[in-house]
Amino acid sequence: MDYNSEFRRSIDQRDEFWSEQARQIDWIKAPETVWQAKDNGHGDWFPDGVLNTCDVALDANIRAGRGDQKALIYDSPVTNSQHSYTYNELTEEVARFAGALKARGIGKGDRVIIYMPMIPQAAIAMLACARIGAIHSVVFGGFAAHELAVRIEDAQPKALITASCGIEVTRVIEYKPLVDKAIEQSSHKPDTCVVFQRPQARADMQTGRDLDWNDIMASAEPADPVPVKATDPLYILYTSGTTGKPKGVVRDNGGHAVALKYSMKLVYDANPGDVYWAASDVGWVVGHSYIVYGPLFAGCTTILYEGKPVKTPDAGAFWRVVQDHGVNLLFTAPTAFRAVRKEDPEADQLEKYDVRSLKRIFLAGERLDPPTYEWLREHTGLPILDHWWQTETGWAICCNPVGIEMMETKPGSATVPSPGYNVQIVEMDGSQVPAGSQGQIAVKLPLPPGCMQTVWGDDDRFRRTYLDPIPGYYSSGDGGYIDDDGYVFVMGRTDDVINVAGHRLSTGEMEEVVASHPAIAECCVVGAHDEMRGQIPIGLVLIKDGATIDHDELEEELVEMVRDKIGAIACFRRAMVVERLPKTRSGKILRRVIRQIADGEEYTVPSTIDDPSILEEISEQFRR
Ligand code: COA
Ligand code: AMP
After folding, report:
1. CATH second-level architecture of 3-307+387-480?
2. pLDDT score for 450
3. Which alpha helices (DSSP H) does 473-602 contain, by range?
4. Ligand at shortest distance from the CA of 364
5. What is the pLDDT of residue 172?
């Protein structure tokens, strides 16, 4: 099968195509209906199918004879430890933890928040929720208490699962005080809080609510997978939008399992027994799809790495992991390799390790800049494959479909639309843009299986954000173009979302925090170009009349506020006091122009600007 005919079939004979893919997973009751329209081109996948996602990930592999194969390898340079689980062992742990949750009254449809570092218990907790039909919502460990509180408020979890600490390069981060603070801030209180105690920091336990992971595991009865409808939610994953309130992306069980299984072959050409490593974090969609679910659906061995690309202990860390575990497929964000390249420009570290097991390197999460692509290509001699996707889609919208046909790579392009995604470049009114010209990247509805169903608790927001802007299409929020050969080039967000070291963040959210400082009259935050992190946020602030505060002191306070409310990962380190902000006559802040000025790019003075001289003032300040 070649790519073009596979792609055409996925669009022209959609139901037949996905029905075939659905047969690649184990169902409790196989679906008869493939896709059912709801409204406006949106719909449900496999609505009458019944399955259990944990069964597909674990038990199905045991049934297929892979019980003694390694399912998960935990590699932790920050604690100097490694541990692996076979499919038999992982299933037993997961079933036991599922039983422990069940014994606390947690079952189908209940929400469970998981706020954990990169330890196997995070994956075990996710799979255990799936086993009993509970909906997990993993919150990235780098988020501060306030962010966690917002998610507790929205998801209303019955239980929260955490660990006593996470370990960063220079410090141990105690999680429990953050969890306690978040629960205190939220009006919703989970009944149960399960804590995995780590020796690097012991958590104080609250009687009645807090339970020790090991204690409840010791007395637990293993639980069997419960049947759930394909359309029942598997998880909620919060992601940044343009407003201060994150969106809870809801993913189903059936479409997710079918799509991820298909993607493991299509995008990565992963086969049972392959060692697959996504160097990311379970708190992000990459971690959900390709540390936990995808590799297990495909019978691979997945690696869960608690460390960084550099400084744990050096820029050879990735190559060391590849060698130690015989990694075949590696997936990470370009920023990780930018960090490696900065510390080891000639890739001397690569020479120290035997990385012959490695077949391909995959990158996503942000634009793969051509210098990073070239560096990797030159030093590894391997195919370096960019692919473009989002939390909302859960798997690649565009990729090099190596599982079907390896296509020529074009630096700067995520290659071609994955089968199932009818990608088009359009104007906001839905009219087509000619090949080579930039526009909004949109996907003609319906979306393929595995994509978001709705926004948790706010279907209106889902429609307003994704379906209403361009009728008949899913609006991706990214801009770009398709060239004459059908290659898709993603040029960046067209909204106020920024990407800092592969972490998706909202400038709107940072603006809310900055604006809450008593001395601030008005502010705006833009994402400026950064060599290593891709983008970093920069604040422009206007001080209230009469407020007297030293500018450096104010900057320090604002930086601390963003760290405290959002987290250190926001990397908000600069707040510049300005006399005025450039606005249109209708009062809209001209963020795009500010960003261009910050990046030292040429800009055209918008005709709608209220007072063009402000732009010169701001340029002057950036130059200083
Ligand atoms: N828990 C708590 N704090 C965290 C954290 C976590 N899980 N992850 C990061 N932080 C903190 C860091 O300690 C740092 O704090 P500091 O300002 O006090 O030093 C801050 O957040 C910024 O973190 P980061 O941007 O990760 O900087 P870094 O210097 O530690 O590492 C990279 C830089 C490029 C090596 C790192 O960002 C990286 O590996 N990125 C890959 C991105 C990725 O995996 N993205 C997922 C999508 S594929
Ligand atoms: P997230 O939801 O955190 O995965 O972030 C999704 C956003 O990251 C997308 O909307 C893009 O802006 C950006 N992104 C992800 N992958 C790529 C890629 N391969 N090329 C360009 N941008 C990307």
Report:
1. 3-Layer(aba) Sandwich (3.40)
2. 98
3. 507-515, 551-565, 591-598
4. 2
5. 97
